[in-house]
Fold this protein.
Amino acid sequence: MQPVLSIAGSDCSGGAGIQADLKTMCALGVYGMTVITAITAQNTTGVFAVTELTPEMVRQQMQAIFEDIPPAAVKIGMVSSAPIIRTIRETLQAYDAKNIVVDPVMVAKSGHFLLQPEAVDELRHLLAIADVATPNIPEAEALTGLTIEDAAGMEAAARQIAQSGAKHVLVKGGHRCNDANDLLFDGNQIMVLPGKRIDTKNTHGTGCTLSSAIASYLARGATVAEAVSQAKTYITAAITHALPLGQGAGPVGHLIDLYQKGKLTYN
Ligand SMILES: Nc1ncnc2c1ncn2[C@@H]1O[C@H](COP(=O)(O)OP(=O)(O)O)[C@@H](O)[C@H]1O
Ligand SMILES: Cc1ncc(COP(=O)(O)OP(=O)(O)O)c(N)n1
C-alpha cells in the first residue's frame, strides 16, 4: 500500500482539511499520514477560530515521517502563514519529496481567511516545487491579479501560475455558475475536465478532497493527466453522495461503502 502525506489544517467537523484528506486516501486504497499545520474550530456554517502550530513543530512532524516512511505523494492544503510555508518548502526540498500537489487554500467557502494575506508571496515560492497546483477561481485571481469570468480567463490564469514553476496547473471551476469544468495546463497543452454542475449546497471539502485524490492516484502510479481525470470522477461522485449534515454546507460523501461493494472502481 502506497503511503501518502497530507500537510494541512484540522477541520474538527470532519468535512475539509486533514479529515477530508484521510477519508479520501482511505477510500482510494492508499496509506494516509498527516502533518498538521493548524487547528481550526469550524463546522458546516463557518470557521470560528484558528490556532497555528509552530514552524518547528511542523518541521519535526515532517522529519518524523520522511525519516521513516517516505511518502509516494504529498498533498499540501491549509498552510496559514509565511514561516510555516517556508519550513514546508525547505523540508520537502531537503527530502527530495515526490509527487507534490499544492492546493493553495486561501479562503473557506464560508468566507473565513485561512491564509494570512502577507503569506501569498511565500505561497508562490511553494508553488514553484509543485508537480500539480490546484487553485480555485478566487485563488487563481489572487495569485495572478486577473479577473476570471470564463474558460479563457481560467486558461490565462493557468498559464501565468505555471510561470511560478508549477509543472501542472489545474484551475478548478467549482465557483462558476453554469458548469463545473476544470482546466489543466501541463506547460504545453490545455486539457478540459468537463463537469456538470450538481445542484447542492453540500460542498464542504470539495477542494481538499480533489487534491488528496490527485495525490492518491499519483502514488498509485498514475500520470498527472490520469490522476487529475480519476480524481475528477471521484469528487463528482463524492458531491453526488454529499451528506445533508449540519445547518450549513454539508460535507461531500467519501463513498467508502460503494468502493468496498465494488460498485465503483479505483481505475
Ligand atoms: N456544485 C458542483 N457540481 C459539480 N462539481 C463541483 C461543484 N462544486 C465544485 N465542484 C468540483 O469540485 C472540485 C473542487 O472545486 P472547487 O469547489 O472550485 O474548489 P474549492 O473547494 O477549493 O473552492 C472541482 O473539480 C469542481 O469542478
Ligand atoms: C482546515 C481547512 N482546510 C481547508 C479548508 C478549505 O476547504 P475546501 O475544500 O477548499 O473548501 P471548503 O470546505 O471551504 O468548502 C477548510 N475549510 N478547512
